[in-house]
Each structure stands twice: as structure tokens, then as C-alpha cells.
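Work Package 3 (structural annotation) set out to generate three-dimensional models for the target panel prioritized at the project kickoff. During this period the team completed the workflow that converts sequence records into C-alpha cells, so that structures can be stored uniformly alongside our sequence database. As a representative example, we reproduce one entry of 296 residues exactly as it appears in the project archive.
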Amino acid sequence: MYFREPAVGLAFCIFYLAFNFTNKYVLSILKFTYPTLFQGWQTLVGGVFLHVCWKIGWVEINFFSRSDIISWLPASAFFVGIIYAGSRALSRLPIPVFLTLHNGAEVVTYVVQRVFFREQSSYVRSFSVILLLMSVGSLPLHDVQFDKDGYFWAVIHLFCSGCYKVFQKSKKPSSLSDLDQQYINYFFSVVLLASASHPTGDLISALEFPFLYFSIFHSGCFASGILGFLLMLLSVKLRSSVSPAHHLSWAFLAKGLTALVSLFVFEISLDIPLTICFLTGCFGEALLIYAERTGA
């Protein structure tokens, strides 16, 4: 019983690393940058696996009404923005840069909650958001591998991530569980991305992809779909069994481990100013966890 949380948490960290590394390999090393097809394949695999697990009784999906589905569609639209823009950004940016920019979603969440929902915030949380904003804002100035398109898609990714968190919190308590929400996300994504793959030319471009890498691409997409599905299940399990602060702590560890290991696997030009940007972001995120844990 005492080892359950560490076991789930460590598994979450390992799958988080494997998921991001697989995506980075397919998108950057193989240079298969067709996001509608890539993410459509991922969400199809995840949706099918979640549906099968529901039917055989491994997970519980509630019979949600049409009104529940319609009310959740804005969040599903943000979810598509998260995975689409995230793929675009990850294909062009180093993993530590991408994860640091991803933390900027907390800034979006903070601003939306303060401006539109008039929520009060502690000084510790406000200071942590300032540090995250400083880290994100300084990255383009010190990144010697600066990629304009990569940063553009990363901004869209963090904006959609922040809005998704706000929408998710505003729907709590809700008749939709975390798995219900993900079930709707998966199948909404498949429909939207499948319909968008032909007009954008992704399907045609994929068929022209070099045959040598074609099977590797499919294997990578399939592996990414499975890893993403298992990562989602572990995240839901972790969120339901520990406090929000503990869940944030495991997410912080997973991102830190992934960023650190990626330095030895993928190419990145790292210098002192860029390292300071990363460390500032890490300190800001650590303060955010402290604020969540203490209620400060």
C-alpha cells in the first residue's frame, strides 16, 4: 500500500520520457512533420484502446448525455490545439526549450482566472507566475537555435493548454470524469484531424514519404499512441490517488528527468544564459507546487 504512489509516480515519469522521446524521434529525426496525420493516428490508437478497455471492464466510462458532450466540445477543441501545435513546436524545438515554454500555460491560466473569473491569488503563486513568465520571455533572447516557427507554435500550444486547464477547472464538479473527458477528446480529435488531413495535403505527403522510413513512422506513431494512452491512464490514476500538490510534484519530476536526459540524446546548444532560463522556469514551477501544497 505504501509503495503504490511511488510505483505509479515512477511509471508516470518513465512513460512521460518515452512518450516525448518517441514523438521527438518521429517528428525531428525522421522529419515526418505532418501533424494532422500524426496526431490523428495517435488519438485513434488512444481512443480505440480506451474504448476496448471500457468494454472489457478495465476502466469505467459513464454514459454521458448529448448535453454533456456539447458542453465539453470547447475543451476538446482546445485539446486538438494542444496536440497539433505541440507537435509543430516539438518538431522544431529542443525538448528542454519546449517543456520550459509549456510551463507558460500556467501564466495563461493565472491571467484568465484573475481577469475573467476574478479569482484571488496568493503572493507566492503570483511570484511563481512572474518567474515562469520571465523564463518564457527570456528564452527567445538567449536561444542560439532560435526557430521562429517553433516558438510561434509553442505559444499557441501553451495558450490552448492554459485555456484547457481553466475550462477543466470551471467544469468541476462535473458529471464527466477525467476518463469521460478524455474519451470525448480522443474521438473529437480523430474526426477533426481526419477531415483536415486531406485539405492540408498531409495524407498525400505521407504517401510520398521515403519507403525506408515509412514502416518506422507507422511503428513510431503506433508506439506513441500506446505510450500516450498509458501515460494518460497513469496520470488519471495518480491524480485520483494523491493530492493536487503531489500530482504536480510528479509532473515536475517527469519534465525535469525528460529535459535532463534529452541533453544526452538529442542535439542542443546549451550555454549559461539558456541554462539560467531553464533554472528560472524550474524554480517558478517549484514555487507553484509549494503554493499548492501549503495553500499559500
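Residues 4-22+47-294 form one domain.
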